[in-house]
Amino acid sequence: MATAKSIGRETAERTVRRVRLRIASSAAGAAALAVYLFTLAPSVGFIDAGELAAVAHTFGIAHPTGYPLFTVLAGIWAYLPLGDGIVRLNVFAAVLAASAVVLHVYLIHFLLGLFRRKPSRREKGKKSSGVGAKGNPVPLPEDVRIALAAFGALFIAFSETFWKTALSVEVYALHLPLVTAAILFFVRATLDPSAGDTMRRRFLSAAALVLGLSFSNHMTTLLLLPAFAIVYFRVHGFGAPAWKGVGRAAPFFAVGLLPYFYLPLRAAASPVLNWGNPTTFERFLWHITGRQYQVWMFEGLKAAGKQLSWFLSTYPAEFGWVGAALCAAGAVAVFRRERLVGTFLALLFLGCVAYAVNYSIYDIESYFLLAYMTSGVWAAFGLGAVYAVSRKRRAIPLIAGAIALGVLLGANFPSVSQRGNHLVEDYSRNMFASLEPNAIILSYQWDYWVSASYYYQLVERLRPDVVVIDKELLRRSWYFEQLRRWHPDIYR
C-alpha cells in the first residue's frame, strides 16, 4: 500500500521529468529558430511566396486549395511590428517551423516511452519481478529518452526540405506544427497505456480539432487518415464503443473546419486578390479540392515511377547517408519491438510517398514532408537501439548523435541557406525598372516574376502603372473579372 511519502516522491519525480522535458523541447525549438533566422530569406522567395505575401497583406483568396487558416493567421502577423513587409512573413514561417520542432520533442519522447530493450543477462537473473527481471523488457532511462527526443526533433529540423520550408513564407510552414500536433494528440489518445478513459477522450477530441484546422490549411492532411483509422480500429475494434468515440470527436473536427467559411465570405466582398472567386458552392468545392491542379494527378505508372525515382535518389541528401542509415535502423527496431507503433509510422511514411509520387509537378519536395518527419522519428529510435546494445559505453551513441547533427547541419547549410539571396527581388525590380510607363506584360513566369509582382505592386506599391497579365490564367473565367476590376481600360 502506497504511503503519503512515496506518493509525494512520485509526484515530485513526475514534476522534475516534465520540467526537464519542457526545457529540452524549448531548447530544441530555440536552437532551430536561431538557425532559421540566421539563414532566413531576406526578400521574396520563389514560386508562391509573392502571391501568398500579397494575399496575407490584403486578406485575399489564394490559389487552390485556398489555405484560409494560413491566410487569416499570416494576415494578422503581417501587421505586427516585427520588421518590414516580406521579412516579417518569412519570420512567421520560421516561428511556425520551430514550434513544430518543439512538438516533435514531445511526440518522440512519448513514442520512445513505448520502446523497450531486451534485458541483459544480469538483469534476467534478478529474482525480483520488476522491470528487467526474468526477461521482462526494459524501458529507456528518462534522461536518455529526453536526449533522444531532442536529437530526433533537431534531426527533422535540419533535414533539407523541412529547413527550406522554414525560411520563406509558405503554407507548408503552418502545416508542420498542425500535422505534428494532430499526430501527438492521436497517439496519446490511442497508444498511451497509462491514460484513463477521460484523458483518452480529451486527447482524441484535441486530435480531431487540430485535424480539422489542418485540413483548413492544406488538403494533404488527408494523408494522416489511413494511419489514424487503421490504428484506431486496431486498438478499439469495430464495435459500438469505437464508433461512439468517433461520434464524440466529430463535432470537434467540424469546428476545426470553420475557417473554410472565410473563402466564400471574403470572396463575396471582392478582395483585390480573389483567385477562383469561390462565392458559389460549385466554385467553392472546385477551389478547396484543387480541381485546377487535378490534371497533374494520377497520370499513370510512368509519371509515378519518375517521381518515385526522384524521391529515392534524393532521400539520402535529406539526412546524409549516416542519417539515412539511422532512419532505416530505427524503422526496423521499432517494428520489431513495438509492432503497432512501427505499423503506424510505416503507414504515415508509405501513405505520403504513395500520394506524392502520383502528383506530376516539379516542385514536389514539400509533398514528402510527412515522410521526412516520420524518418526523423525513426532516426531517434535508431539511435535508441544503438544505445540499448552499447552496454557500458552508453555515452557513445549520444555523442554520435551530436556529431550526426553537426554533420547534417554543415552538409545542408550551403544548399538550404537563403541568407543574402535577392534573386527574385533583383529580377523583379530590374524588370519594373526597364519598362516604359503604362507598359503591359504578358508572362507565364509565375515562379520568379508574376507571383512576386503581386507583392511588389499590391503591397510595396511599386510601378502600379504596369499591367502584368498571367498568360496561363487567361484560361480561367474568374481571372477576366479580376482583370476587369484591376485594369478596366485594358479589359475593354
What can you tell me about this protein's structure?
The strands form two sheets. The protein has a two-stranded antiparallel sheet. Strands 3-4 form a two-stranded parallel sheet. The chain is mainly alpha-helical and 492 residues long. It is built from 21 helices and four strands. Residues 126-136 have low confidence and may be disordered. α1 (4-38) packs antiparallel against α4, α4 (85-112) packs parallel to α8 (171-191) and α6 runs antiparallel to α16 (369-389). The longest helix has 37 residues, at 301-337. It has helices spanning 4-38, 49-58, 68-77, 85-112, 121-124, 142-157, 160-165, 171-191, 197-215, 225-236, 240-256, 262-268, 281-288, 301-337, 339-356, 369-389, 395-416, 423-434, 446-458, 477-486, 488-491; strands at residues 116-117, 138-139, 440-443, 467-470.
Summarize the structure.
The protein is mainly α and 492 residues long. It has helices at 4-38, 49-58, 68-77, 85-112, 121-124, 142-157, 160-165, 171-191, 197-215, 225-236, 240-256, 262-268, 281-288, 301-337, 339-356, 369-389, 395-416, 423-434, 446-458, 477-486, 488-491, and strands spanning 116-117, 138-139, 440-443, 467-470.
Notable traits:
two-stranded antiparallel ribbon, single chain, 4 strands, 492 residues, 21 helices
- Biggest sheet: strand arrangement: 1-2
| Beta strands, count | 4
Strand portion: under 5%
- Please estimate the helix content: 55-70%
